[in-house]
Design brief:
The chain is mostly helical. It folds into two domains: 67 residues, no CATH class; 139 residues, Orthogonal Bundle (MetI-like fold). Helices cover 73% and strands 0% of the residues. The protein contains twelve helices and no strands. It starts with 5 loop residues before the first helix and ends with a helix.
């Protein structure tokens, strides 16, 4: 029988040490390629933002010049002060933030209630109603802009915050779907235990389901606010 020395075992190409080294090198190359792709994608997404900033500090002549000049000769930071002064930017930004906040809060509350109802309560026609609600996602939002504007004009709501309140209270089909799928994952025993302790469905929602729905609430709030 041939006895292998310790040095021969270490130098064998098929030894665990060599296999681990090859695996580490392959993993390093794979991770490097992934990060390279991510960096390239990030730079590609940053180019429009960089172009926007550079264009904002150009003079009118430089902005309209051809061939296009990437960097301005002199950075006109006074453009920002002029825009803020002439366009009443602070007030406009505050109005936008306030309307977005009102819509976000109402929409998250409405979608959470609707998703909870679809997920945890049974009623005749529930599945049909849920299907009809999801089918509205196939209608592009821009198709409804003009009809809604005409409707709000006729009932005198244009120029008020009430349309945003109505939009928020109506909910969003996609976000209702998110809440429904999230709440459906809770074990039935948790709800039964709350019922045994005397919790009403509303109290169960606020004290058990809603406090544990942080991730889906955050996602819904982000979608609502940026819309």
């Amino acid at each position: 029988m041939t006895t292998l020395t310790q040095s021969e075992i270490k130098s064998s190409p098929s030894s665990p040490v060599h296999r681990t080294a090859r695996f580490n090198r392959a993993e390093f190359v794979r991770n490097a390629l992934i990060y390279l792709i991510i960096v390239i994608a990030a730079v590609a997404f940053m180019i429009p933002i960089l172009w926007l900033v550079l264009s904002s500090i150009k003079t009118d002549a430089e902005f309209a010049a051809y061939p296009i000049r990437v960097f301005p000769r002199i950075a006109m930071w006074s453009n920002y002060a002029e825009a803020i002064d002439k366009l009443d930017f602070i007030q406009s930004a505050w109005n936008t933030f306030l309307l977005a906040l009102i819509y976000t809060v109402l929409n998250v509350i409405s979608c959470a209630f609707s998703g909870y109802g679809f997920a945890r309560h049974t009623a005749p026609g529930r599945n049909l109603l849920f299907t009809l609600m999801l089918s509205t996602m196939m209608v592009p939002a821009v198709v409804m802009v003009i009809p809604q504007f005409v409707l709000y004009t006729r009932i005198g709501l244009v120029g008020t915050i009430l349309p945003w309140v109505l939009w928020g209270m109506a909910g969003n089909p996609f976000q209702i779907f998110l809440f429904k799928q999230f709440f459906a994952g809770f074990p039935k025993e948790l709800e039964d235990a709350a019922e045994v302790d005397g919790c009403t469905p509303l109290r169960t929602f606020f004290q058990i389901f809603l406090p544990n729905a942080g991730p889906v609430i955050a996602a819904s709030a982000i979608f609502s606010f940026q819309w």
